[in-house]
Amino acid sequence: MDNGTVRILDISNKFKEIHKFYNIKKFYQIRNQFILFDYDQSNEKSKKIGILHLDKCQDNITKIIHPGESGLKIDSTILMKFHEFFYFHENHYFLAWNKASSLCICALNKYYQLFQLVCNVFPYDTQAGRCSFVVNPHLYGVIYANIKIDDQNSRTYVSFDNGKEFMPLHYEGDSSECRDIFCGVELDLLCSTDFTINNFPDKWIVKFHGTYYRKDSAIRYTFISFDGGKIWKIFNSQIERLIIFNNGGLMFGAERSTGKIWYSYDMGWSWYKQKIDANNLIDIKPIESHNNQVIVAINYDILTNIYTLFLFNFSHVISSCQIISDSTCSNDDFENWYVPRDSGICFQGFEVEYLRKKPLSPCFVNRTWSMLTQKQCPCSLEDFHW
């Protein structure tokens, strides 16, 4: 960047210049998806931002957003939170202030139409590491947002219709009679570069830490949904670095500072624990391949300054039903699953069907399976923003 000019070079082609932008104040690269340009303009009403996609499959045309034309404003406080700009499912999602100085989630669709989805979202400080909202990278139209209930507090809501309606979270087995506005959950919505890997381990699986507020308590838990966010399971937050794979057929985590590992074969219904010679597991990673489920963990002993590598092989295990022995899932082990839209399984002219492993099927998912089918269906005006 030189005197407000930004040059984009192709290092694979002898640093050939492929783009040049003028009058740029700042620019931000977001998740290796696109570059966000903040144009140097003194008039806030004519403020504009530019977006250049880095995906070679996308066109090389820079999208220009003029929020002022819709009565919205993007200022430096929003641009400093550039991780809260998302591009998924041919839609751009970002924050902007409305005329009432309320923070809003907005969307720019593939036809360059700008919509205001919901306002009064909570404006987190950039140092908090949390975000006002997160878009599901796998499921179109599913958005999680922390919406203010007063000046100091927010609770998490979810939308399954691309922001037309947001509803409170629902929890499995929740018998709480608290109907106070302060009761509910505030998820730690993270939107860092690797948020997809950490928080969306599979198309319909969502995992966040958060705080459950009741009448007289505020308790930290891990919240996991196996249906995109319609119903949430609540797990003890002492089980750290919880990983999920094989469509929820294996969950694994470590209990804080005790040297115990916890694992489940049935999406967290039944748990097993085992003591190991490690009380400071600093990293846990799955190694998943055909008929193999291996977990690698690294322990660091602070006193001896020694790192120890642990391998946990779950390729031949006893599940809640039977022994899994080189068993690849067959047709009978899968069920059809749809995103839980309020209007039915057809949304904006498409019916998207996923093949999901049944919760109690003791088998390994072969990743070569076609897990998604899509077909057209009659459009409904209620599915779109107007």
Automatic annotation (TrEMBL):
SUPFAM superfamilies: Sialidases. It comes from the Eukaryota. It comes from Thelohanellus kitauei. Residues 324-384 form the Sortilin C-terminal domain. One of its GO terms (biological process) is post-Golgi vesicle-mediated transport. The lineage of its organism: Eukaryota, Metazoa, Cnidaria, Myxozoa, Myxosporea. InterPro entries: Sialidase_sf, Sortilin_C, VPS10-sortilin. GO terms for cellular component: Golgi apparatus; membrane. This is VPS10 domain-containing receptor SorCS3. Pfam families: Sortilin_C. The keyword Protein biosynthesis does not apply. Keywords: Receptor.
